[in-house]
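pasting L-dopachrome tautomerase yellow-f2-like for the record, 473 residues
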Amino acid sequence: MSYLIFAPLMILLAVPVQPQRFNNVGKLTEVFAWKQMTYDINGIMVLRDRFAEDDLAGGDRDRRSADGLYFNYNDDGKKNWEEGQIWHDSPTEQPTTPTVDPNDEIGRFFVQYNNVPMGVEKVGNRLFITIPRRRYGIPATLNYIDLSVQGGRSPPLTPYPDMARSTSMVSVYRTRADECGRLWMVDTGTIEIPNNPRYMQTPAIVVYDLRTDRQILRYTLKSTDLPARNTPTGLASITVVIKNGDCSNAYAYIADVVTYGIIVYSLKENDSWRHSHNYFHFNPTAGNMRVAGQSFQWNDGVFSIAAGPEGPDGCRQMYFHPMVSHQEFSVSSCELETRTANQTAFQVIGHRGTNSQSTMHGYHAPSRVMFFAEVGRDAVSCWHTDKPLAPGNMGMLAQDQLRMSYPSDLHVTDDEVWVMANSLPRFIYSRLNPNQYNFFVYRAKVADLIAGTVCAAPYGPNPFYPGNFFMNI
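structre below
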């Protein structure tokens, strides 16, 4: 009898301790979260501000502490706040106008607070993380995490392909890999210091062979691709498609959010050209936004381009939207492949709903579902492309004002959706709290995400994937 009483207790005691369950959001599972970013550079952990790269081995010339802010000088030449002191919400002697002069950080190797991740993409066992240089103090703009090694919640970043070669790139927002084992990106060539951007080199398309980790292409964009001096600051995303399974016949599509255009690059021709259209512009009625506790007006134009499946004619439906908009548009890839597109070939697909401003979106061909990173609603949503695009056909998959604040990237790969959220508006207009988690990476299987939602597939075979029935994706 006593055995029966105590047996369950013995069994419970024998169960190993389960690993910590991180905070998931809706149907998305948290993979990583960071309060602030750290690096593993040549085996040396970089956990705090560093004056210069040669400080890695143990120098101690910190410019400022990772969790402190520095302030301008008063008219009498005295600092508003002493170096090294941490800024609290209500310090005893609170300075009246706390500001940071980013130009005071020129030449600093690592300013931890300035490292805000923007892009995420999983390729094999590597997770690529981009940190565009919107301030000084970013050691490497393109980095990765080895998923076969890193298992903690806040792993350090490793410069890609290594620290020495990573210095050839100035600033990258997002990457995209193709089915031919290549990693594509746009190096904007610009350090985006507020009110004082530094144009270091002409923007270029950069491609790495992921099998050898060698750069195999650097194509400098032409002057006709860049209509204004500030155009480089708007080259925030790239989409790559392969025609007819021929790796030598690739096209890259670059969205220009600042001067409202799409740049097309042909690998076979090694040439680029630019398209303009009214649909690339922002919608002023969608410009009022409130994200991460900040109210502001933005005017970002065409932001994300998602490729539909290739048809029998080799053409794809290319879906796109301005970030400041609630609408979705499309045009044939074959139209964009021409130097002068027919202006009437661009179509209005529909309206996603109020406050549905979106950064990136991605298409999952087997299910014919589009996924959206909605900054306006702190959310990830979906739409089955067989249905009209309307608010009633949009499915809400994950939403959280803190942990999904400003989803900056979304990518569909290997039947999974990967998302980065980074609280960017708080970084721009206020300040991040370095004692709280600010940056998150999430993932989920497509089938799990859309199950039981309005995006769940109807019965019937997928014409692009014969034998694959939607009910069993």
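The longest strand covers residues 302-310.
The domain at 24-52+104-450 is CATH 2.120.10.30 (Neuraminidase).
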